[in-house]
Amino acid sequence: MVRSSLPGAAPDRRPTAGGFDAPVDMRTNRRRLLDSGIALGATPAFVGRLARAVEAVPRTATLDATEATIVSHIGRAHPRPGPLSLDIAPIAENGSSVPVRLHVPDEEHGSVRALSLLLLAPENPDPTVAVWHFSSLSGSASVATRIRLARSQRVVAVAVMADGSWRRTERAVHVNIGGCGIENAGPRDDP
Amino acid sequence: MSDGAALPPPLAQPRVKVPEQASAGELITLKSLLRHRMDSGNRIDGSGHPIPRLIINRFIATFDDELLFSAIVEPSTAENPFFEFTARLTRSGTVRFLWIEDGGATVSIERTITVT
Amino acid sequence: MSPLSRRRFAGLLGSTPVLAWRPRTAFAASPPRIVIIGGGAAGATTARLLAREGGERLDITLVEQTARYTTCFQSNLYLGGYRSLDALTHDYGVLARGDGIRVIGTRAVRIDRDERSVHLDDGRRLAYDRLVVAPGIELMYDSVPDYSRAAAERAPHAWQGGAQLRLLKSRLDALQNGEHVIIVAPPDPYRCPPGPYERASMIASLFRRRGLPDSRITIIDAKPSFSKQALFEAGWHRYYPNTIEWFPSDIHGGILSIDIEAGTVETDLDTFRGQLLNIIPAQRAGRIAREAALTDASGFCPIDPATMHSTFDPAITVLGDACIAGDMPKSAFAAHSQARVAVASLLGELLGRAMPPPRFGNICWSLIDEGDAIKVGGSYAPSGERIGSTGSFVSQPSDAAGTRASNHDESIAWYEAITTDMFGRDA
Fold first, then answer.
1. Is A125 in Cβ contact with B74 (below 8 Å)?
2. Chains touching chain B at 3 or more Cβ pairs under 8 angstroms?
3. Domain count, chain C
4. pLDDT tens digit string along A101-150?
């Protein structure tokens, strides 16, 4: 779920360990999305309504405010340990297009559903990559995409769960620009 | 927009992959790709002028009248936004994909799927 | 003239199974026999350097089946119309007339490591004291669905041999406006990492020059990224907007089938159609190396980085595209550099010459458009059991135009220098 408030809008809104000070009504947001989806027919009115329902991500997150950025997206929620896989190669040949795959593994085994995934590249001028929302038709909370990395950094993934909790993981990626290819890639993988 | 600024180029034709058939309850994989520069607003062109921001900022996939998957897309998503995601369906229907660009231009494409 | 008289040479023919066999230690009596398989950047350079440094103290035979050798390096420039085929084609006349190199223009079919002999396809055998194996690559046609050696006549790879290169050029020159090219690019490791992308650039340049504004190039890549990608993509946006489209493996999801006649490539994402398919399959070391058990599970030949000897056989040196060269890419520059280290090692072993510390270098140039060439390169040295990088450089997006133009001039000058090292130069 996504909130519309700006991160760090007031000093007293910075997160304390384990909790957040601003409420969010996840049921209300979810109903709004479904209402909009029902009317989908790509009419201008629909598009406007749906776009407003999927709320804007603030663009003013500062590089040292990753936690605040997460808060701004997920609002009031409790971090809770749980599996979240973030697959990204430790060395990226080309920072302008880096493949990444996110997945919440235990969802398919009947445990609590993930509502959305969020990916951050804190060292980028625009640290947010995207927020992805899943539905009851999704079958799994997983997405593969390509991201931009301005420089070597630790990318951060967050999963927001339907029970109000959230999970987090991160991976360090070293970014090369250029290079002459990977030599001696080892035993050939099966095609 | 300054005087004489050109309109953004029309959105390209997207490419999507939806299986033609699936079993009810089977986990299927969907793919979507749209050719787009995703100009973040942070780049400077050869003459030293900043290239203004122009990105795809929303991606929405629906199955018939229901929301299936959606994304708020930000500039750190790479050029030519690509999303691979899953669905578990119990009936036949139409998957529609919609992309929305800064400024409101849209492009959409749909595929039918037979679920038995 | 070759030091070997015709009569003695004729004595190598005949019915005895192994000819001119002598104990391995009897070097003092007659010059050690060095046989070199392959007359490319590694093999031809090795032959000429050994001849120049060893003279009559070495008996050097070069086996190369091609009489007129068209270099794969810079062949993309011929496709783009920037170099002529004649400028890229060389013969072994000067090399053969030079002192001390016997050139045999047939194919080597088998290495007998126990016997230390090379079997030729005309039935002859060459005994060796030291063998240099530089056969280049073997194309693995079945790494691409529905592709084969026969299919390459309709969908050329143009990654080996002059005939394939001429075939691709004639197909390109026959394209009409609105007709498209699909390039299938191979997985690592392969000969010339930036090659497919320089080729796409050269084809786009050809489209522009021939006035084909509606023709497109689609690259279906087995890899998720490629050499100098940011530089190529910046060049493509600048010079060839909306002309070249690249699909990496994680996005297209794999090639399911290819219909050569219809010109379609079906992937998990979508089916692509083109009037000309350029399919570059996966590669491994030349077959003669593999069948001699000189390769490992990677399909290429492991070597000792200080000497370039095969780790499986100290009497055999493996050079160029066929060997596992650690951080060095598979390129002509690298093959030539490895040849110099190998020659120093052989001169040390056979003639007692002092060997300098082994050092390697590489530069790969790629022409994106007229007057704009990018380059990447590095220096290398033995690092444990492999060749490791000791420094590298690459073109920058911020390069001045003059830098990119002089890169190209530099590559032309290098071409003249390496082909002189390989083939010699007519007076």
1. no
2. A, C
3. 2
4. 999 987 666 667 899 999 999 999 999 999 999 999 999 999 999 999 99
